[in-house]
Write a structure and sequence with these properties.
Rossmann fold; 17 strands; four-stranded mixed β-sheet; 6 helices; 280 residues; 21% helix
């Protein structure tokens, strides 16, 4: 059964109180606060902001409080959840219509939340609750798949052993997500990840750019930047299984798709291994 809820994965540095978006003065279709306005059209809907990824949760609270006030959201709160989750924590999550994970360190989110009652509750709400939305920016987006990039080097070559994959929150199977993708030159590390895990699509999200995912597979690109999808299903040759640590990795026939605001595509694979894309 397809999930009844929605996911919103954001590439980081979305237009908000403390950011200066690079594309703001260049992209003629730039819309102020566009990404965070996607959280909900009901300004009174309860939003719980999870700051667990951040080492500076107070700063996150100040930033998003100002931005949400500007948008007009009236009912939101902040939670810095750990593995020792209280009944009050779980009750707040149960009552929320939107959950929003801030940026920081994706490994920290997974360490504190994976396989906990909170993680189980979010999966259940996403599966069963109509219009429930789980959103995340930067590390908050990277933590959502079953497989995450835990640690990686952004080098000139893909070297065996310079990336470590880990376990995520299992909200978005069949994908590996990377963020700040264009600005921080992360094509190599996401390619390396999907060469290792050829059962996954690589989703590289640019800054101030998001994918809204409905029914578990219908993805629509939003925002001022670009989403890059790297498809490894048709790799014809690679040395990933035979090289030693520190040796360069290669692959032939990786397929790359580029999407911008308004483009939609299917995260499921067709018979030839490519996402079914379109513009609507």
């Amino acid at each position: 059964m397809n999930p009844k809820g929605k996911l919103l994965i954001i590439g980081g540095k979305e237009d908000r109180d403390d950011t200066d978006v690079e594309m703001k003065d260049k992209n003629r279709e730039f819309a102020s606060l566009e990404i965070l306005k996607l959280l909900t059209s009901d300004k009174n809907r309860r939003i719980e902001v999870i700051t667990t990824a951040s080492s500076e949760p107070e700063g996150m609270r100040d930033t998003y409080r100002k931005t949400f006030d500007e948008i007009g959201y009236t009912d939101f709160g902040f939670m810095h959840i750990s593995r020792e989750q209280s009944d009050e924590d779980l009750d707040r999550l149960k009552k929320a219509g939107v959950i929003f994970f801030t940026g920081g360190d994706q490994s920290r989110i997974c360490k504190e939340l994976k396989d906990t009652p909170a993680n189980k509750l979010l999966i259940e709400k996403y599966q069963d609750e109509e219009d429930f939305l789980i959103a995340g920016t930067s590390a908050g987006a990277m933590c959502m798949p079953e497989i995450i990039i835990d640690e990686a080097e952004d080098g000139e070559a893909m070297l065996k052993g310079d990336i470590k994959l880990g376990s995520g929150l299992n909200l978005l199977p069949g994908c590996i997500v990377d963020t700040h993708f264009i600005h921080r030159g992360r094509f190599g590390r996401l390619s390396h990840a999907v060469i290792i895990r050829q059962d996954c699509l690589g989703i590289g999200l640019g800054e101030d750019t998001a994918l809204l995912i409905e029914d578990g597979y219908r993805a629509t690109c939003k925002g001022s930047g670009m989403t890059v999808v790297i498809d490894p299903k048709n790799i014809s040759r690679t040395n990933i299984d035979r090289v030693e640590k520190g040796d360069p990795v290669f692959a032939e026939n990786l397929v790359v798709h580029l999407y911008t605001d308004g483009c939609s595509f299917d995260l499921r694979q067709d018979e030839e291994g490519a996402p079914d894309g379109g513009y609507h």
